[in-house]
Fold this sequence. Notes:
This protein is mainly alpha-helical. The protein has 14 helices and 5 strands. The chain has a 3-stranded parallel beta sheet. Strands 4-5 form a two-stranded parallel sheet. Helix 4 (60-76) crosses helix 13 (274-300) and helix 5 crosses helix 8. The site of tryptophan has 13 residues, from strand 1 and helix 8. Tryptophan is lined by residues 14-18, 49, 52, 139, 142-143, 151, 153, 157.
Amino acid sequence: MSVTNEAEKKKVIFSAIQPSGTITLGNYLGALRNWTALQDDYQCIFALADLHTITVRQEPTKFRHNALEAYALLLACGINVEKSLFFIQSHVHTHAELAWILNCYTQFGELSRMTQFKDKSTKHADNINVGLFTYPSLMAADILLYQADLIPVGADQKQHLELARDIAERFNRIYSPTFVVPQPYISKTGARVMSLQDPTKKMSKSDENANSCVAVLDKPEDIMRKFKRAITDSDGLIAYGEEKDGINNLMGIYACVTGKTNEQIETEFSGKGYGDFKTAVADAVIAHLQPIQEKFSHYMTDKAYLEKCYIESAEKALSISNRTLRKVMKKIGFIPKTY
Length: 339
Ligand code: TRP
């Protein structure tokens, strides 16, 4: 019986997102939607990485509100707590504890080479705190606590995942096999959504130009306005091609929300102008986001349900992660806790 169970055991996927304000169409199409699609085939463990968020100063009321909104929105996007765990990182104390331990197995030089640290310390020059520096070891703790096999990450987190692998291998070598060494999970679907104003750059909530970024919770009229103002190019053709970043981006978004292929889109819009196309993309995005927005509003009126979801997940996450933490502490030589 146990042998069969072992053989049938689903691989573990771990991922997390920070509740730092707006969740964009780029976050949704590039990551969140893929997460939800994995829930039947894998044991998925998702977290709201709020401990990571305080590496940048937060206003308490806003921080609390953003975190709850992000939790509700991710449920609305399709995270299913019947199938997956979805908890709030700060509710599961093993994360901070293992992060400290892993800090002692991570080299100063390794963290100094992290490009995100270099970027963020330029951007927040008045608050280059130590948390910003050790952020990757907290991320390694998130992943390694659950013995995760696969981690869906975007390009910006690849270096951090590499480091988590190095830390895991190092620990396993010094003691004995303790951690599963995680692999990146490269999704077959999903788009890299670019800025609507500069389609050579990734869509980002921190862009100064508000028209460059669509939020999942944007009102329909705002979504329409942003797409109507989207940068295209000068040849007037709705076709995928080189040096057509603006059209490529719009086609990618349209394909993602309608399920159509590039060829189908090219046929659908042959002989039509950019104006028609941009309106069609906006309409498709609005229609796609509408049920998510409705579910979100509903969840936000039911705080008790949200609380039930995150508490139940946190309890399960604590029990799984504690097994790893205890194993780690025993191997290092701490006196075992008997209570
Ligand atoms: N650092 C990630 C981000 O900002 C979020 C994150 C925290 C994460 N812990 C993780 C992602 C573990 C993957 C695995 O996007």
